[in-house]
Amino acid sequence: MASAGHIIILVLGGLLLEFGIGGHATDTTHPRLRLSHKELWDLNRTSIFHSPFGFLDLRVMLLDEYQERLFVGGRDLVYSLNLDRVSEGYREIHWPSTVLQKEECMMKGKDESECANFVRVLHHYNRTHLLACGTGAFDPLCAFIRVGHQLEDHLFQLELHRFERGRGRCPFDPNSSFTSTLIGSELFSALYSDYWGRDAAVFRSLGRMTHIRTEHDDERLLKEPKFVGSYMIPDNEDRDDNKVYFFFTEKALESENNAHTIYTRVGRVCANDMGGQRILVNKWSTFLKARLVCSVPGMNGIDTHFDELEDIFLLQTRDNKNPVIFGLFNTTSNIFRGYAICVYHMSSIRAAFNGPYAHKEGPEYHWSLYEGKVPYPRPGSCASKVNGGKYGTTKDYPDEAIRFARSHPLMHQPVKPVHKRPILVKTDGKYNLKQIAVDRVEAEDGQYDVLFIGTDNGIVLKVITIYNQETESMEEVILEELQVFKLPVPIISMEISSKRQQLYIGSESAVAQIRFHQCDMYGTACADCCLARDPYCAWDGISCSRYYPTGTHAKRRFRRQDVRHGNAAQQCFGQQFVGEVLDKTEERLAYGIEYNSTLLECTPRSLQAKVIWFVQKARETRKEEVKTDDRVVKMDLGLLFLRLHKMDAGTYFCQTVEHSFVHTVRKITLEVVEEERVEEMFNKDYEEVPHKMPCPVQSNIPQGSKPWYKEFLQLIGYSNFQRVEEYCEKVWCTDKKRKKLKMSPSKWKYSTPQERKHRAKSDHYRLPRHALDF
Ligand SMILES: *[C@@H]1O[C@H](CO)[C@@H](O)[C@H](O)[C@H]1NC(C)=O
Ligand SMILES: *[C@@H]1O[C@H](CO)[C@@H](O)[C@H](O)[C@H]1NC(C)=O
Ligand SMILES: *[C@@H]1O[C@H](CO)[C@@H](O)[C@H](O)[C@H]1NC(C)=O
Ligand SMILES: *[C@@H]1O[C@H](CO)[C@@H](O)[C@H](O)[C@H]1NC(C)=O
Ligand SMILES: *[C@@H]1O[C@H](CO)[C@@H](O)[C@H](O)[C@H]1NC(C)=O
């Protein structure tokens, strides 16, 4: 026990060192932008489908770009949603279990909540039909759903005359882990296939080929697996050589120290496996598996491993034989929590399967490298022309080869990720990562993989990671944190459409869609656009807009974008960005009471920007950086004076620095009202009141907001609004007196009646805001 603890501490140290000193110039733990659910809504960037029946219990989603629908399977229901806008024009199929089935299910000891038909399989079967399977109150069944073409999308109905048994195709249990993929008319599935949830197996069924499975109760093949994903990935042009890959975790028999060690695996079978003739009859004869490693190299060769696969994503490339594989991993340690994303190339996976086998001499031996003779045909290879064409089917394989395959399902070498390290690691405990989807984008300075990561609290992170060859380190940039669901619900499924630039996100009770990008939101200056580092967006000379690689869109001369460095100063040189940014500086006036506290509010949009405060005191021309101490505190919300002094009066500049680009976000003139004056203001007549405070403009005060003077008086502890109002009317707000007021126009932009009138027509009056309500 003691030594185990020791190792973990060492490992942790290694990890911290690796990522702590790794040298991120910017603050990468914060997303650059955070968008609330409401903001996404106001931007029209999202749409949400809620089931009209009040429940969904989502289990599976199927994106069908051809039919232009998103199919969703849940409890007793299948929905067909509109890909353009999921909230509109949905169709549904009600597919409950019968009363009899439910009764039987409950009689067998299951809870009523489980005794429903949870639809867990949805595949595109042919041009006219979907294959759907449900748990059927612990008696799974499959059926076909007729779907229409684009023009007749009203069609969405269950073929009632043709139900099939679902055993081996769909789990009994609505919650047990499961994956399946349909190739031609053959369904490849990995699941717990019995009522008790004990028989974990990989199946091929449904089609015309022999139904085939892994052997029962063979721990060497699968030991308490959790199935995560499955895909057919061709090896070459010879279809007989096609292989189906399964991604799962299981208890690792080869692990020497700990019987409970969990490893992630990639397993594979030949799609055309027919089993053996005398041995492994109707069983896979080509099943092999290898360990998928995702670890951070540490000091002294001790790596920190992320062994619990949570989700897997296949990024298709132009070459369908070589998709890029993204794995989202969790740690299995109960001492240390963390997540990592690793990327794998098919070449590394194939290399592991083409490499040496692991071997176990007998019950007392450990798994070790097999160095003996490997039979022909090589176990795990398919009966195909590419492999010499000597065997038409695995049934013709010599017994020796089949016997070897049966006892050597594990490869000796693990599969290592690209760069031998994760592309992203999260150990700060801020997010629990559940789902991943990836979009590959062409940007001005190269290709980027934009990761969309779903969390367990309704959030999707949009992240890019940039590899630095020289330092062999990764920079991760969380471009956006999107609060997709109003409530912090776990995200359980994600589908991505690059064609539509939309992400579809499923939670237990709702399905949301979200557009990948909203370029104009970054701001109206070139610098804002560049600093965003969003590969989807570039400055086009006029605004921040969608970036299209050359040729595909109207050719604009200016496309300014720098995803790698976010160097706005360089990119935007000559774009008059300085002028524009200065123009955008907000100006405000704030009052504070002597000896009281005051907050000068300034929260830059970018959470990665560093804020620096400068002050220009009354008669000075020089700006100097504000010195903070225990009286003046820099906070996330702004600059806080715990106890205001008269000498604090002046003009404050809230500047942000991001990638060495400086931007003055806000200019606040702070007036300090002496304590006695506050009292005076109420007690003396107008004429004696120092006219520091302008008369509020009555018209055009935005609804719902209090006039500033009320806020001010409330601030200083004056709570009788009625009297305040009267007082203001009497003292400041008669027209006659307004004219008498001589306010400095530099402080009050719209101080003359003409100016005010003009302003009133064009815009709201800007209220000086006092933000003491932090
Ligand atoms: C919101 O976006 C959809 C397309 O996604 C569009 O059809 C709709 O008109 C937009 N609504 C508003 C108010 O802009
Ligand atoms: C698709 O499959 C269904 C179910 O087997 C079948 O009834 C239908 O005729 C098929 N459609 C086509 C176009 O092959
Ligand atoms: C299945 O999961 C749901 C939540 O996802 C939970 O409420 C339910 O209790 C689970 N059922 C079983 C049998 O574990
Ligand atoms: C990560 O693993 C831990 C322990 O294995 C588990 O408690 C946690 O739920 C996992 N996180 C997610 C998001 O699945
Ligand atoms: C500071 O303001 C509070 C009300 O916000 C008031 O009660 C208090 O008397 C003020 N203190 C001083 C020293 O003016």
Automatic annotation (TrEMBL):
Alphabetical UniProt keywords: Disulfide bond, Glycoprotein, Immunoglobulin domain, Secreted, Signal
GO MF terms, alphabetically ordered: chemorepellent activity; semaphorin receptor binding
GO terms (BP aspect): axon guidance; branching involved in blood vessel morphogenesis; gonadotrophin-releasing hormone neuronal migration to the hypothalamus; negative regulation of angiogenesis; negative regulation of cell-matrix adhesion; negative regulation of neuron apoptotic process; neural crest cell migration; positive regulation of cell migration
InterPro entries named among the record's database cross-references: Ig-like_fold, Immunoglobulin_dom, PSI, Semap_dom, Semap_dom_sf, Semaphorin, Semaphorin_3E_Sema, WD40/YVTN_repeat-like_dom_sf
Domain Sema residues, every copy: 32-516
GO cellular component: extracellular space; plasma membrane
Protein's UniProt keywords contain Signal: yes
A Pfam short name: ig
SUPFAM superfamilies, per database record: Plexin repeat, Sema domain
CDD domains (alphabetical): Ig_Sema3 (cd05871), Sema_3E (cd11253)
Compartments where located: Secreted
Leader sequence residues: 1-25
Similarity section: Belongs to the semaphorin family.
PANTHER family, A to Z: SEMAPHORIN, SEMAPHORIN-3E
Name of the protein in its database record: Semaphorin 3E
Recorded name of the encoding gene: SEMA3E
